[in-house]
Specification:
- There is one protein chain.
- The protein is 36% helix and 15% strand.
- It has helices at 6-16, 71-81, 92-104, 117-132, 172-175, 186-196, 219-232, 251-256, 282-285, 304-315, 319-336, 367-382, 403-415; strands at 38-42, 45-48, 53-56, 110-114, 136-141, 153-155, 163-165, 178-182, 200-205, 235-239, 262-265, 276-280, 346-347, 350-351, 385-386, 395-396.
- The strands form 4 sheets. Strands 4-12-11-10-9-5-8 form a 7-stranded mixed beta sheet, with helices on both faces. It has a 4-stranded mixed beta sheet with strand order 1-2-3-15.
- Helix 3 runs parallel beside helix 10 (304-315).
- Bound molecules: 4'-deoxy-4'-aminopyridoxal-5'-phosphate.
- The site of 4'-deoxy-4'-aminopyridoxal-5'-phosphate (PMP) has 14 residues, from helix 4.
Amino acid sequence: MTMSGNDTLFQEALGHFPGGVSSPVRAFRAVGGTPKFFRKAWGCRFTDEDGRSFIDLCMSWGPLILGHAHPDILAAVDASMREGLTFGAPSRRELELARRIKAMVPFIEKMRFVSSGTEAVMSALRAARGFTRRDRVVKFDGCYHGHADAMLVKAGSGLVTFGTPSSAGVPAAVGELTSVLPLDDFEALERFFVEQGSELACAIIEPIPANNGLLVQKPEFLKRLRELCSTYGALLIFDEVISGFRIAPGGAAEHYGIAPDLVTYGKIIGGGMPVGCYGGRKDVMGVVAPDGPVYQAGTLSGNPVAMAAGLATLERLTPELYRQLDATAAAWAAAFEKIPGLRCPRMGSLLWPLYQDGVRRSDAVLGESISKFNLLHRTLLEHGIYLPPSGYEVAFISAAHDDAALAEFKQVVEKI
Ligand code: PMP
């Protein structure tokens, strides 16, 4: 008889995949222990391969704003699936999703569907470079934009303004075309644009940085970035793979009242299926093939089943749902703050449980706070609460996080 516990599966997985996983953070290296193998998930809960059930605060890293296995989304996927899994040709479902996106995000004039957030970013960068005929891009330390070569770059040392690869396998020559600035540093921003603004194709930023904890920026920082891009003829790309459709119907762009030239989406836009999207100004999108000279394509792009899942999700994002999510997330954040020494900054339904306050930059996160988080992660897991397995990740609240789950969490907090 074969055992089907997490440990047994993980042992086998180690023989199949690097680190035993299909994406690195899932390996639990940061927090220690064996990753949970999900067997079945519903609402805000899942059971693992040991048959234990957990309240999920990771929610597949963001797509599941309505919760796991939402019946309406499953029904939409089922109906679409029965008409064919992929066509490699246009289908009406792409138009339905595009219409809905435009209704929610007014500054999007044209868009293109892809299959992941990484692909959306990579394609948006290429379009920006093609449109401006410039090569340099700038990103911000503490933002993550997927694993395209140009984005796996960290700040160079000393006074050099270009970056160096943060991953082996990325050529130094690629890194040199990406500059990296600190978040929340107005002076560095001004200086950079004076020195390099006229060479810049685009600036890319997570307007609500949520990949190094939750590094909420002052609105003036984003506004100044918008102005500087316009002044120097560089495009502004908002990477809203996490914040899109989560913070508001129009994402962070709506929240801050700033229209970027291009925006990238992933996660929620596919409702749990692999979808990404980039879009924005129609003159910029006009450079994309076949209208223009910037090549970008995909066998499964605009996949009908994925479009159906995305549409079913976006259709349920009503003002009432955002109000409910906000109230639920506020209650969870308050419950987290009952844990001695823990703070829980929040933006809408994104939470960052951290043993520190007021962090706006990646270099302000203390190692000590992360070590304490790792302990907390273990303790909560033992009590059936599943947080993302790293202190640098945010927790996601969904519309399926109900009163029962919150009450259970509060009881755990009292016990630990
Ligand atoms: N941009 C941001 C802001 C993200 O959070 C992520 C993924 N966490 C990506 C891009 C990459 O998306 P994907 O993992 O779908 O490639």
